[in-house]
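EI: anyone free to look at a 548-residue chain?
SC: sure, send it
EI:
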Amino acid sequence: MEIKIEEWTVGKLIEFEKENSLRVNHEYQRGLRWTNFQKQMFIDSIFRGYSIPAFYFHKTIASQSKNVFYDIVDGQQRIDAIKSFSDGAFELLDPTGDIGFKFPNFMKDDSCPWGGKRFAELQPNLQKQLKDHKIVVYEIKTNNVNSIRDLFIRLQGGTPLTPQDKRDSWPGHFTEFVLRVGGKKGVDKWYGCPLFTEIAKVNNESNRRQLVAQIFMLYWNIQKENKFCDIKSANIDEFYHSHVDFDEDSKEAKAFLKACNKLHGIFEGNPKLVGHYLIHLFLLVNQLMAEYASGWESQLVNKWHEFDNRRQQASKDVKEGNEGVFNQYYLRYGLHAQTRSDSATTIRQRHVFFVEEMLELLNPEKLDKKRVLSNLERQTVFFRDKGICQWSRMKGHTRQVLWDEAEIHHVIPYSKGGKTDIGNSALVHPDWHPKTDQEVAEFRDWWQQNHPDNGNNQPRRSNGKKPVPPDGTKIKFLFNNKEHHGEYLGGKIVLTGDGGRSVTCSSLSDASRKVTNTPRNGWRDWFLLLPNQDEWIPADDWRRDQIV
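SC: here you go
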């Protein structure tokens, strides 16, 4: 096999493709897979002068015509993107437009004369810039076709790059920050923060750096917008792109590293922490440092162990069908660490419960001794109540409350012995804050019957009606290591049994009785998948949100 490295241009690539000199060997090529968005981003990268991967071609000469052909070994998707754009198949992305993708601020401010244009709409100098862009081509000569197949397998079938591996090569200061905090072997400047290199329980370096990015995203969104965010792969990509101009010396970056070092110092020498625990412990410690007197540090590990033991016991009880005293640890935390654990809703639900329980277990001393909630407690109430005014919920509405206007109402007034804690606090809008004795009493009575965290396990009633999920809602229940399924039809539940047999039930509790042969509160057992939704939720959570 003879391999020659050549320097081509994009223009030469376009001409060879038009002349059918570039050929796809369908024996091993996978076909076209890139979306328009991927093609747009690739062409945009060329205009920005970014380096693009090399192309591999098998150079052959036809025996009769002596024509030269290049079979594509690697680069099919990129070639198609270049050809499609030159043919006018799509327009490029405009950083200043509303395209559902966040470009970093510096790109929005920079000139982008190709943005939003097709090839024919570009100025001649831009068309020339694209065609003159240099690319590296490996020209391979061999009569042994199997060696080409072997090369293709080595290029495509080796250890594939993970999404985080790809992010590690992207330009920008946030990339450098994640590499420095997450660490990478063999590169001294990317030494890694010991919280992640020693305490985080991850499978490999790539996953470790991804965890750094995810925790920072959550931290950043809570700091900047007082809300949680999805931490899925696509969301991480978007965060990288929109923070290319990230300042590693900013107060947020320094505070992040300070909390990392604090948490490492507390957990050093203890068993490693899985991702979801590291997320919630970091967010908790970051605020404990700012708002509470020292002393909680010496208790944190033991109290976290107590939390984890309760969670494990709850998981065991639920799977065995037992009504354990810690079942909420499964329903409100353990379950959400298993399914859709990277969605904002799931993370928020876990974190609210985690903070409530850990504050009760730790009982830390506030720096501010006044009769007010700490910012951590206020945020937890805000997240727990989903940013919705609870007086409006009582009246059958869902008025959103902005963080800056949020007020906290003592359900049982302080003057009548009510505690200043999360459990006795409700989020309200300033315009709807109960004022008179009558309003306070009305809200207290509604809260004690209806709020999810008041310990009342009776089904919610409004106007004398029990809440019933809509037809088409799917249900599931794990009992004795077997998952049971059903669906709401005509206001009833149809369970699917062994052999395709179906059983009709009047309620979730009736369905639980048929599954377990014991009387049970079915709202605590089952999970719902509502029509047109893609997230399973505890039935009890759904029930508590219903007001007719």
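EI: Residues 454-464 have pLDDT under 50 and may be disordered.
SC: 👍
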